[in-house]
Amino acid sequence: MNSKDNIQSTNDSSEAAHKKAIISKKIIPYLLLLPVFFYYAVFWLFPVLSGMKEVFTDINGEFTLFSNFKLMLESDLFGEAVFNTATFAAVSVVLQYFLALMLAVLLSMKFRGSKLLMFVSMIPMAITPTAVAIIWKTGLVRDGWINSFLMQLSIIDKPIVFMNSEGLAAVFLIILIDTWTVTPSVMIILIAGLQGVQKELKEAAYLFGANKWRIFKDIIIPILKPSITTSIIMRLIAAIQVWAIAVMVLGYSKVPFLVERIAFYADVVPGVDTSSKIAFTLSFTTTLIVLAATVFYLMASKKRTFSGGEK
Amino acid sequence: MDKLNVIQKTVMTIVLATLVLIVVLPLMFFTTVSFSNAAEMSQFPKSMLPNFNVTVKVVPTEEGEFEVFYDSGEGYTSIITSKRASKLETHFTRQYAVTVPGEQLIEDFSQTLVKGPMEFTYKKDAFYNFKQFFSIVPNASTALKNSIIVSLMTILISLSIGSLAGYAMARYNFKLKRQINVSLLIVRMFPMVGISIPMAILLIRFGLFDTLIGLAFLYSIPNIALTSWITSSIFIGINKELEEASMVFGANNFQTFMRITLPLAFPALAASSMYSFLTAWNDTISALILTNENQTLALVVYKAIGTTSSGIQYAAAGSIVLILPALVFTFIIRKYIGQMWGGVEL
């Protein structure tokens, strides 16, 4: 009886020790994650919540649901900003995608100098946005290098005035500059994806009589899909937040964008109560749009994979 | 099977040549601008390659003064007539970026009294615009220092906090893991502007507004999440048996991490540092919102572009200073960018 008890108790204690080890092991990941939680609670969640509080209180600090949004909707150039941002995001993502895919396919064919070419084509993505803006500003002014170059090649005989462009023309000017900068980063992701396409797969397809277009459409694109999803989301998020090039090349209020308006209210007319409210509401709205775009795209791409799987 | 016919080859060559031109031409012309002097800036059409010499023609006048002619592309035109050393020196410095003492100029020009009209060629001070940028633009040199400090702080914060989280995500299974992963993704996708403005209020409350560490705290927000994502994918790839072997030989968890895991994870850490650096180095809007005095270089260059309509060549020189570190940094670790997206050879 006694000895049985002993065995029981030793069993208990070893079980307890085992349990303790499991618990401490269970805690380790949470301990490792603790700094992140703490950091994001203080520096992310708190600002986000206090930003939301600003959006939903009026100048006197009283709760309001719509008055700040009304202020934003009635603010100068808001409609143009929304329209320009939407145009910019749609056109630039499609254009950059088309170019990047073409270059990625070309550069992943191994030929002499392809590595050097890849190196050269990567340069623009390493250039600071502020510097990109000044590169193009010195080019676009009336006596800038673009006109100088075209004149010297006798393509034009009178300088073109780029800086006066307005409305859609100005938006397209900004799209071209943005394309110059960010196409390489999309290209890199696609090249990485393309290198995952096995040669055997392509050869097999050839044997079964597929032509180049079929191989591209039915083998390369599906394999590239994860890379495409990642990079489209990243581009879209960045495109919605465009502002720096527009302001630095053409100036404030010339081509209004959503984030350009935020910078305008924070930089040009700070200190006025309504302008800070407008800035808060604008940044809240922009954030919502970015998150919505992300979620929408993620859902859409998931659905497509599902339907593809069922076939 | 990938053999191309002549037409395809030609088309490909044309496309790739256009690509190179589109990338290289703007950079080449821009470099030229950053080395141009005021006289060259007012020329049109501008020269496409930087020129490091200035040639002037000097004709003595009857009053014993020197008339200086300069060829701005359309033949020589009279620019200045003087015999005062200081006036000539100022003109040569401002217009031609030629920093030759006035007495020297007078001495050279005196030869024309005997020999008649002559041409003189002087060497430009190649880094005149760079010196001007740092002396004309207020705070430019402090801003450069600030940018470096903020970038280093951002790297430090993101790496120390992010890699711990990355390790946890890669090596342990725990409740809410998926939810935590998704929330990290949301934080990473969250637009910077959405946080910058409310962040200003928080930093004022902490007494950190207009400080470098305050900026670094902001830049670390997306980068902690990014670092944990990059490192976790690498930690998953690191052989667990290797770690267990080290434990068998008596190393504890911490030693194993420091001696085995960390060195193997170096590429991932380098890549995430690069992203942290670039966020801090390239940002303008957050710096615009969160600082008054302690500006970063990107912000100073941005302001210089906005304010100077003349003298844009100085701002151009400033942005060359801004471009170089980012360019070098990107290309040093370009191997790791490739690895991150699945091993592109670059």
Blueprint (SSEs and pairs):
The complex is a heterodimer of chains A (311) and B (346).
Chain A: H1 2-55, H2 67-74, H3 78-108, H4 114-122, H5 129-140, H6 145-152, H7 167-194, H8 199-207, H9 212-240, H10 244-250, H11 258-267, H12 273-310
Chain B: H1 6-34, H2 38-41, E1 53-60, E2 66-71, E3 76-82, H3 85-96, H4 102-115, E4 118-123, H5 128-136, H6 140-171, H7 177-189, H8 192-206, H9 212-237, H10 240-248, H11 253-264, H12 266-282, H13 285-290, H14 297-307, H15 312-332, H16 334-340
Antiparallel strand pairs in B: 1-2, 1-4, 2-3
What does the model show?
The complex is a heterodimer of chains A (about 300) and B (about 350). With about 300 residues, chain A is an all-alpha fold. Chain A has 2 domains: about 1-50; about 80-310, MetI-like fold (Orthogonal Bundle), CATH 1.10.3720. Chain A contains 12 helices and no strands. Chain A has helices spanning about 1-55, 65-75, 80-110, 115-120, 130-140, 145-150, 165-195, 200-205, 210-240, 245-250, 260-265, 275-310. In chain A, helix 3 runs parallel beside helix 7 (about 165-195) and helix 7 (about 165-195) packs across helix 9 (about 210-240). The radius of gyration of chain A is 28 Å and the shape is globular. The model of chain A is unreliable at about 1-10 and about 305-310 (pLDDT under 50). Chain B has a 4-stranded antiparallel beta sheet, covered by helices on one side. In chain B, strand 1 and strand 2 (about 65-70) form a beta hairpin. Chain B has 16 helices and 4 strands. Chain B folds into 3 domains: about 5-35; about 50-125, no CATH class; about 135-340, MetI-like (MetI-like fold, Orthogonal Bundle). The radius of gyration of chain B is 29 Å and the shape is elongated. The interface between A and B is large, with 90 and 91 residues.
Q: In short, what is this structure?
A:
Chain A is 78% helix and 0% strand. Chain A is mainly α and 311 residues long.
